[in-house]
Every structure is written in C-alpha cells, then in structure tokens.
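> call design_seq(struct)
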C-alpha cells in the first residue's frame, strides 16, 4: 500500500514536468513513426507494381523490405529509453519507478544483438566451410593432387612442397 501511495505522490508532484519530458516526445515520435509507416505502405504495399516490374519484397510482411518492423521497434524502444533516462536526471525518484523497465530493456537488447551475432557467426562458418570444400575440390580436379584432410599419409599441397601427416606428431 505504501508503494502505491508513493507512486501517486510522485506523479502528482511531477505531473507537468513528467508530461512535457516524457509523454510529449514519445507522442511526437509515434506520430513520426506512423507517418513513416504510411509512406512505406503507399510505396511498397500499394505501389504501382506490374508483372514486368514486380515488387521485390513480395511475400514479406506487408510486402515491405525485410527488417522494417524490427528496425522500427528497436528504434522506438531505444528512443523511449533515452527519453526516460534524460527525464530521470530531472525528476527525483523516477529511477525506482522504471527499474524493472530498464532491466527488461537490457535483456531485450542483449537477446536481440546476441542472436544477431550468433546468426552472423553461423552463416560465416557455413560460407567458410563451403569455400574450403570448393577450393579443395578444385585443387583435386585441376592438379590431380589429393587435398590435405588428415586421412592420407604423404601428400602434396598445391604449392608443391611435401607434407607428411605423421611427422606432425
């Protein structure tokens, strides 16, 4: 009960400052995002696409480029957090009110960028493995030289020097 009363007292004492510092910039941001979304809808979803000039993003969400919604949501969340943190400097007691929100924000950002890094690493590993396999296949087909894969004894590299797997230890 005491926490509720502190929250009510906090909002009454700082209502004008809080309104101008937090709600107005967020409302303006939402209007800008809505205008941007309408422009994207007009260009991609309802654009003048013909069979000769089809929409390259057909099949994506609202036929828009991939990642538009993810980018808008990330920028909006980041904007809201920056506004709240800037307001936190001016309003005493706001930090206790937004503590859980900030933890949730940190977890979302860590998950988002962590999953992007893992996606990048796995795609790089796949392309690296494919490149090495293709290179070894080309070496074998062009020179008749067996690529070094650790399964055969004395083989030669494409450079011509002698290589012995058993000598490595």
């Amino acid at each position: 009960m005491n926490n509720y009363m502190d929250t009510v007292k906090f909002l009454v004492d700082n209502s004008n400052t809080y309104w101008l510092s937090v709600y107005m910039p967020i409302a303006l941001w939402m209007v800008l995002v809505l205008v941007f979304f309408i422009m994207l809808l007009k260009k991609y979803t309802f654009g003048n696409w013909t069979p000769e000039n089809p929409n390259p993003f057909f099949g994506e969400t609202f036929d828009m480029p991939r990642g538009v919604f993810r980018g808008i949501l990330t920028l909006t969340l980041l904007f809201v957090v920056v506004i709240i943190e800037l307001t936190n400097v001016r309003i005493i007691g706001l930090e206790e009110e937004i503590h859980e929100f900030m933890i949730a924000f940190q977890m979302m950002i860590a998950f988002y960028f962590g999953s992007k890094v893992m996606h990048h690493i796995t795609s790089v590993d796949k392309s690296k493995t494919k490149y090495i396999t293709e290179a070894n296949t080309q070496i074998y087909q062009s020179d008749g030289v067996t690529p070094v894969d650790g399964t055969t004894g004395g083989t030669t590299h494409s450079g011509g020097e002698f290589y012995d797997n058993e000598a490595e230890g």
